[in-house]
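Exercise 7b. C-alpha cells:
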C-alpha cells in the first residue's frame, strides 16, 4: 500500500488517472476514498491524488490536538515525495482549511484551488458543533453517529428524496460494519484543527486562482463562512448552490463534477 513517512507520521495516499496532478483533501471524519464519485469523473483529465488525513483511514492517528498548518505540512511532504509542484488542489470542509494553509505556507506547491464549504475562522456556534461532534462520537454507536453527520451535511431535499435517503440508510449500515472506523482520538485531533483554524488576516496573501463553493442551506458551515473566505482572497470566484447543504457536491453532482473539471482545465 502507498504509505510514506511525512511530518512525523505515516500518511496513506492513492493515485489514479493521467495528466497534470490534482490533490484532493477530504473533510473531518472521512478518508480519501469518499472522493470516489468525483474521482471517477476527474481522473479522466487529471492525475488525481487522494490522501487519508492524519487521524483517519490508513494514515496514523496520533494523539492531538492537530492543527490545519500541521496537516498542510503533511500534504506538503507528500507532494515533495512525489516530486510535484504547482499542483491543483481541491479541499472540502476540513480539507478546505488544509488547502488554505498549504497555499499560504507552501505557495510554490499550489497552482490553483477549489475550496468547498470553507471557513477562515470559527465562531462560537461552529466551535460548539465540533465539540458536540466529539462528545457524541464517544457515546453513540457508529450507525447513530453516521445519522448525526448526515443531519449536519444534507439538506431537507436530500432527506425527502427517497433514492437519496435509501443511500443514507446504506451508509449507516456500512458505518456499523466498518472494520476500520475513525477512533475517538483521531476525531478529537481533527476537531481541534477545525476549531482553531484562523487564517482570515492572511488570506490576502494567497494569490493563486481560487474557486470558492458553498451550499446556501448549509447548517454545518453556514454561507457567511464561505462568503468571508471568497471575499478575503484576491483572485477568488464565488459560486453557491441554492437549496443545498454542506454536501452540495453530492446533492448537485451532475453539475458539480463537470464544473470543477472545466474550472481546473482553465486554471
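Sequence design result:
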Amino acid at each position: 500500500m502507498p504509505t510514506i513517512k511525512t511530518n512525523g507520521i505515516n500518511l496513506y495516499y492513492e493515485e489514479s488517472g493521467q495528466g497534470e496532478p490534482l490533490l484532493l483533501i477530504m473533510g473531518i471524519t472521512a478518508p480519501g476514498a469518499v472522493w470516489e464519485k468525483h474521482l471517477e469523473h476527474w481522473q479522466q483529465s487529471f492525475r488525481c491524488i487522494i490522501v487519508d488525513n492524519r487521524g483517519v483511514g490508513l494514515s496514523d492517528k496520533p494523539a492531538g490536538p492537530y492543527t490545519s498548518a500541521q496537516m498542510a505540512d503533511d500534504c506538503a511532504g507528500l507532494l515533495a515525495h512525489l516530486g510535484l509542484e504547482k499542483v491543483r488542489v481541491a479541499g472540502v470542509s476540513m480539507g478546505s482549511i488544509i488547502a488554505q494553509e498549504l497555499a499560504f505556507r507552501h505557495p510554490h506547491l499550489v497552482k490553483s484551488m477549489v475550496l468547498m464549504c470553507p471557513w477562515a475562522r470559527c465562531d462560537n456556534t461552529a466551535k460548539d458543533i465540533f465539540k458536540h461532534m466529539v462528545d457524541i462520537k464517544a457515546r453513540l454507536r457508529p450507525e447513530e453517529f453516521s445519522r448525526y453527520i448526515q443531519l449536519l451535511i444534507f439538506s431537507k431535499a436530500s432527506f425527502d428524496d427517497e433514492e437519496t435517503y435509501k443511500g443514507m440508510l446504506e451508509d449507516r449500515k456500512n458505518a456499523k460494519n466498518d472494520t476500520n472506523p475513525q477512533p475517538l482520538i483521531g476525531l478529537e485531533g481533527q476537531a481541534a484543527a477545525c476549531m482553531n483554524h484562523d487564517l482570515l488576516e492572511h488570506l490576502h496573501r494567497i494569490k493563486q486562482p481560487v474557486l470558492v463553493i458553498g451550499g446556501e442551506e448549509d447548517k454545518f458551515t453556514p454561507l457567511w463562512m464561505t462568503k468571508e473566505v471568497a471575499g478575503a482572497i484576491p483572485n477568488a470566484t464565488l459560486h453557491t448552490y441554492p437549496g443545498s447543504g454542506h454536501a452540495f457536491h453530492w446533492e448537485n453532482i451532475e453539475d458539480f463534477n463537470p464544473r470543477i473539471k472545466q474550472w481546473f482545465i482553465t486554471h
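Instructor comment: Residues 162-177 form the longest helix (16 residues). The chain has a mean pLDDT of 97.
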